[in-house]
């Protein structure tokens, strides 16, 4: 306790010189392993902070809307609040203010592990606190204990034809899981709105716990022999159990899954999957239905399906040029792709104006564990030649690779070659961010989302006026 008193007494002195360290010191002060209790203590303070902020600055303008923004998919419009993460065009994603490299260093790891545990990131996303090892261990155990599926969901999955896309199976199973929704039952019973967040929290914890079981069942039924996924080990972490249920036991692959499930979890609030969960949840739909809607958005080729598109393009390139393509051959192939009206998949981003940090951390993982893999070497060669070509076209604001340019290559190396399944992995990860946000949506009492739309004639008339 004496050491703690000395440390906290120095916080104000160091705050001006070391603001990031100060934030960490403040956030590490609560040692409770009860996540719900930690959250319950934070919510009233945050409610009051936002209430005061809105009262003082509610009429302040934060930007303007142009005609191009309205026709261009609302790109660039500042119209959402997302507490869990913010995407900076130049820095990339920050989870509660921390970059991916910072999270890799400070978040707890499995014994002997190198990559952060997704449980730790979830704790950070939902509380803003950097968790300790005991807190993450407690969360791993709680998710393992909540993981069992109801019989009707198991029956649904086992009777699903393997011709149904894995994402459709995942969406269907999550939708049907809403029979277990504690929020839906509480709402029907007339619970006060101040308690909504507690039931959303319970549903979210149940859903995150059950997702690996659902996803692994889909994988075994669709691509393997349909044999059982085995039992959950309550002494192991979320990623370990998920990888084991998929049928993989390579320690390096387990580490990769810990990294993958961490970095794909959240990308602020405006992407299709996150915004969809927020939008559907604003109608007070339960977390199961809200997340299923987000999964349907994630399944699109312009969102979560993009890593599959990258691999298809890479295989086409390898078929034509082989694994030893020269730089000149790669440039010719890329120019032919662009001149045919196609894009180079995995390059460019709606917000980012630099190499995606999620790409970078996966590249670093590959350089450490599979530097001689032909497909990784091909991706590295493409990384050198594509950005200059895209800049030369004069049409691309961001010529740098995004996360999809790399993730599929790593999964292929470790034997998970079924590309149709990759978006399911993305979906399991994305639950961490969007459900943490959904809990806060209800804690803050955010209303149903209903932006105003206009017709083209109306816009023209308004401009003339």
TrEMBL record:
Pfam families: Citrate_synt (PF00285). GO terms for molecular function: citrate synthase activity. InterPro entries: Citrate_synth-like_lrg_a-sub, Citrate_synth-like_sm_a-sub, Citrate_synthase, Citrate_synthase_AS, Citrate_synthase_euk, Citrate_synthase_sf. One of its GO terms (biological process) is tricarboxylic acid cycle. The active site is at residues 303, 349, 404. Keywords: Transferase, Tricarboxylic acid cycle. GO terms for cellular component: mitochondrial matrix. Pathway: Carbohydrate metabolism; tricarboxylic acid cycle; isocitrate from oxaloacetate: step 1/2. It is found in: Mitochondrion matrix. It catalyses: oxaloacetate + acetyl-CoA + H2O = citrate + CoA + H(+). SUPFAM superfamilies: Citrate synthase (SSF48256). The keyword rRNA-binding does not apply. It comes from the Eukaryota. The keyword RNA-binding does not apply. PANTHER family: CITRATE SYNTHASE, CITRATE SYNTHASE, MITOCHONDRIAL. Homodimer. NCBIfam families: cit_synth_euk (TIGR01793), PRK09569.1 (NF007128). Belongs to the citrate synthase family. This is Citrate synthase. It comes from Photinus pyralis (Common eastern firefly). The lineage of its organism: Eukaryota, Metazoa, Ecdysozoa, Arthropoda, Hexapoda.
């Amino acid at each position: 306790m004496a050491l703690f008193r000395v440390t906290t007494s120095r916080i104000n002195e160091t705050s001006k010189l070391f603001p990031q360290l100060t934030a960490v010191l403040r956030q590490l002060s609560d040692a409770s392993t009860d996540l719900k209790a930690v959250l319950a203590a934070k919510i009233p303070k945050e409610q009051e902070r936002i209430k005061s902020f809105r009262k003082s600055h509610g009429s302040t303008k934060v930007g303007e809307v142009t005609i191009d923004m309205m026709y261009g998919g609302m790109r660039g419009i500042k119209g959402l609040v997302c507490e869990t993460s913010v995407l900076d065009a130049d820095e990339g994603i920050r989870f509660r203010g921390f970059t991916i490299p910072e999270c890799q260093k400070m978040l707890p790891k499995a014994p002997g592990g190198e990559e952060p545990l997704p449980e730790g990131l979830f704790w950070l996303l939902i509380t803003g606190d950097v968790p300790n090892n005991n807190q993450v261990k407690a969360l791993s155990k709680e998710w393992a204990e909540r993981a069992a599926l109801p019989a009707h969901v198991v029956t649904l999955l086992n009777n699903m034809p393997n011709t149904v896309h894995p994402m459709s199976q995942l969406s269907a199973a999550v939708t049907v899981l809403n029979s277990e929704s504690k929020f839906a039952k509480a709402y029907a019973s007339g619970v006060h709105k101040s308690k909504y967040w507690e039931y959303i929290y319970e549903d979210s914890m149940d859903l995150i716990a059950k997702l690996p079981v659902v996803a692994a069942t889909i994988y075994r039924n669709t691509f393997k022999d349909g044999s059982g996924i085995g039992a959950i080990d309550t002494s192991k972490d979320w990623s370990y159990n998920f990888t084991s249920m998929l049928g993989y036991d390579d320690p390096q692959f387990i580490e990769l899954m810990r990294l993958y499930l961490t970095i794909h979890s959240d990308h602020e609030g405006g992407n299709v999957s996150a915004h969809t969960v927020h939008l559907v949840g604003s109608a007070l739909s339960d977390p199961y239905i809200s997340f299923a809607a987000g999964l349907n958005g994630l399944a699109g080729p312009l969102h979560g399906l993009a890593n599959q598109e990258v691999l298809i393009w890479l295989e086409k390139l390898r078929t034509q040029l082989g694994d030893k393509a020269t730089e000149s051959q790669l440039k010719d192939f890329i120019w032919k792709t662009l001149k045919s009206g196609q894009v180079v998949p995995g390059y460019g981003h709606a917000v980012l104006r630099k190499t995606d940090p999620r790409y970078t951390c996966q590249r670093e993982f590959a350089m450490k564990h599979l530097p001689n893999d032909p497909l990784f070497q091909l991706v590295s060669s493409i990384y050198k030649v594509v950005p200059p070509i895209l800049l030369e076209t004069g049409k691309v604001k961001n010529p740098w690779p995004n996360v999809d340019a790399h993730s599929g290559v790593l999964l292929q190396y470790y034997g998970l070659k079924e590309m149709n399944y990759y978006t399911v992995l993305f979906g399991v990860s994305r639950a961490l961010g969007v459900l943490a946000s959904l809990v806060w949506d209800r804690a803050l009492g955010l209303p149903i989302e209903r932006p105003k739309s206009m017709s083209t004639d109306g816009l023209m008339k308004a401009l003339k006026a």
